[in-house]
Amino acid sequence: MAVTYTSTRNRQETATASQAILKGLADNGGLFVPDSIPALDVDFGTLAQMSYQEVAYEVMSRMLTDFTEEELKHCINSAYDKKFDTEKIAPLVKKAGAWYLELFHGSTIAFKDMALSILPYLLVTSARKNHVENEIVILTATSGDTGKAALAGFADVPGTRIIVFYPKNGVSPIQEKQMVTQKGANTSVVGIIGNFDDAQTGVKNMFNDKQLAKELNEKGFQFSSANSINIGRLVPQMVYYVYAYARLVAEGEVKAGDPINVVVPTGNFGNILAAYYAKEMGLPIRKFICASNENKVLYDFFSTGVYDRNRPFILTSSPSMDILISSNLERLIYRIAGDDAERNAALMKSLTAEGRYEIDDNMRQKLSEFYGGYADEAETAAAIKRVYESDAYVMDTHTAVASSVYDKYVKETGDGTPTVIASTASPYKFTRSVMEALRGDCGDASDFELVDALNSLSGVPVPQAVEEIRTAPVLHDTVCDKADMEKIVRGILL
């Protein structure tokens, strides 16, 4: 059955999977959503015998129905290869009463690799399928991890360019060094004076600028997105939840069909939405535990039904979650509004105009599968120390937020359902915060001195992604005001 993609703000705007991947963002700021999610008609016993790549094909072929088997398998096998430091791609590790799904074994040591390793192949294939002759310009905003993973994925890919905006003072030193040392003749990295929401808003405004699109087209360019608003990011993320469940079945930890819970450290809502879509495909997930840091806009939303971004923006030790506008939540809002594009568009208009919206009681009832929790900075550090002392396992700050929230959830509910925690980044990406949690004030030690200290403490090898930037030269040093983002893009392309 062919799956058609529809705009969350206009049901008349539809696209095939490849067209939605190419376009990235629907007109009027809407996001593409599947008109239906097919059942995963492969039993879990069979999936339990499959490799990550094989599970990926079973999941993605149900969602990307205008890709041929040959095209899709080429994309999958090109993405999930030696770029990952384990053949399992996404191993499960049982620690401290939960299963940690390690999503950081790719080339940039963050979960964004899981989707951004395949997106360039999906995009190039989509361009060929739709006879696109323009050069594809990947325009993206990052809160830290998407930027480097997208840069690594698209560097020197023929027919593409990539421009990444990041908050100059809102990412970790390792994250920034990873981006500004990125090689590739088609890559551009720009720091902005502002926060991630400013960067994301600037990018969305350029996507919706019809005059800019006309000028770019005349010069042989067209925008596409590598952010999680692109359905080509979201579908690959469904895979690892199905794979994790299949591994639990294979290892006898759950019986096929038994429910699990998932805990996801959440900023832009894409990662947890992928789990929600996986459930709609047939994965038996009982509870979606949405873990926020001190920028707890999602916690407040699940608690009250009010989404309100009118609050101070807090820089935390988990910067990839320092977000007040969770773009992918719109896809869930559309679903719980009964696929009512007009209702959804009105709510999003209210968010733009007033910075807030409120859902009705009927919509709130449809969120009963979600549990919102948050961890402050002290609780995040305490979780890192607790799990290290109990299990000799070192987590990054984002995973620690999830671990802390899960601990609260169990104490509050007594729910003993087997639980998978999405472990979204290597601790080496946030060494100062991790080492301070474990050993206290790190003083004047450099970030790379702390890398070596963490290596001595944990015994976990330093990832190649960190080793290679120790002495790498800075290749991108542009910084601009948030108001000048379009001017910078014009300078790069026009």
Compose a concise summary of this entry:
This protein has 494 residues and is of the alpha/beta class.
Q: Can you tell me about this structure?
A:
- By secondary structure, this protein is α/β, with parallel strands linked by helices.
- The protein has helices spanning 17-23, 44-47, 52-63, 69-79, 112-116, 119-129, 145-154, 173-180, 196-207, 210-218, 231-250, 270-281, 297-304, 329-336, 341-354, 361-365, 377-391, 397-413, 431-439, 447-458, 464-467, 485-493, and strands at 5-7, 10-15, 32-34, 92-95, 98-102, 135-141, 160-167, 187-193, 221-224, 260-265, 285-292, 306-308, 356-358, 370-374, 419-423, 478-481.
- The strands form four sheets. The chain has a six-stranded mixed β-sheet, sandwiched between helices. It has a five-stranded parallel β-sheet with strand order 9-6-7-8-16, sandwiched between helices. Strands 2-1-3 form a three-stranded antiparallel β-sheet.
- α4 runs antiparallel to α6 (119-129), α17 packs across α19 and α19 crosses α20 (447-458).
- The N and C termini lie far apart (42 Å).
- The mean pLDDT is 96.
